[in-house]
Amino acid sequence: QVQLVESGGGLVQAGGSLRLSCVVSGSTFSINAMGWYRQAPGKQRELVAAISSGGSTNYADSVKGRFTISRDNAKNTVYLQMNSLKPEDTAVYYCNADLIVYENRRSFRGAYWGQGTQVTVSS
Fold first, then answer.
1. In angstroms, how far is CA 93 from the centroid of its own chain?
2. Residue 27 has what pLDDT?
3. Which of 31, 99, 103, 106 is the most buried (most CB within 10 A)?
4. What angle do CA 4, 7, 11 make, to 5 degrees?
5. What pLDDT is stored for residue 40 in this prediction?
6. Cα–Cα distances in Å, from 93 out to 64, 74, 86, 103, 116?
7. What integer pLDDT is reported at residue 109 of this predicted model?
8. Strand-pair category, 117-122 with 57-59
9. Which residue stretches of the chain have pLDDT < 50?
């Protein structure tokens, strides 16, 4: 069974920084794209940033120039460095991974999610 575990959320003042981490563990797997999503109260979940297996990245317009996504394939980990945080960045941040899981001589591809980590930015 595969698990995605996020860490690094918290409370920070506007203008501050946080670094989120997400580790993938469990069954035998390979990781394709990884990404970070967020969901604020009363709003739909939205893509914040994504990174391909080859390292190509894309960002939501609202975070370009402030957030940086990266990955360490040896550690099965994706990071989100968030700088110049704004109150509107307040949300639950979710890690997402496109995985191929190998079990019992079969493979399954699917999107896996972490449990979410709260980021709160005070004004």
1. 7
2. 80
3. 99
4. 145
5. 97
6. 16, 23, 14, 29, 5
7. 93
8. unpaired
9. none
